[in-house]
Fold:
Amino acid sequence: MSQITLGDMAEEPNGVPTDAGRRYILKAGLAASILALWQSDPVWALENEMSKETQHRALPSVLTMSDVQTVSLALAHYTEGPLLNGLRKRPGLSPRDRSVVTVAALIARIQSVDMSHHFALALDNGVKPAELSEIITHLAFYAGWPNAMAAVVVAKELFDARSIGVDQLPAAQGNLLPLNEEAENQRATQVGNNFGATSPGLVQNTTDLLFRDLWLRPALVPRDRSLVTVSALIANGQTAQIPYHLGRAMDNGLTQEQASEVLTHIAFYAGWPCAFSALPVVKDVFEKRQK
Structure:
């Protein structure tokens, strides 16, 4: 990469850079940004002074409780009490399920600050490295590629710290779970009839990439894949998609009690408005399944 020197930045007599000088400044900034993004050791990673012993356990959250107290004593109180000693100890979801829901919500909302802590906690709570890897892959489709890539940056640090190699991760391709042909044909026909003329590419990719490929990957059991999807939809306020996916989740083994507790949990990690926006939709799904 060529060096841009101060001598290249021509100035007008009054000391203001000329157009050519401004372009050089912009080029310099862009070059520095690209270099920072692509270097193997980002600045924040190089500045990390954790000991090797700590790295091989759980990577800590960026913030400590003391940090929070310097900004908000009330927030620290609510974090220690209602969140850690309240929500986390409720029986509606297992610790593993709570980690799955939390991870899905953080990725869906690109909440990178807390990812390292909760990714590590998920592994400690029984989520396998292959499952965490697959959650990230799944959410590329349900929250967007940039969200998944942000999660990759954090997960890579954790996997390196715990010596988790590619041999512990799901294969790119391989044997898929059995397909429910009748249910998939019914779904594809309905979506095709409704939207095939509007966006044939989206409709075809939904069939080929999602429901005949991604949803059949064995690294996540269908119930957990549904749990990830529903959690991400609630966290992102995508209420229109909740009825189908919540119904599918319950068909895949998620109980009503567990689905109810997902709402309670998500309120803390995505905010009460997201949970309450989903509340009437979830209520409708519950009532229709009871008839």
Observations:
- Confidence is low (pLDDT under 50) at residues 1-18, 21-60.
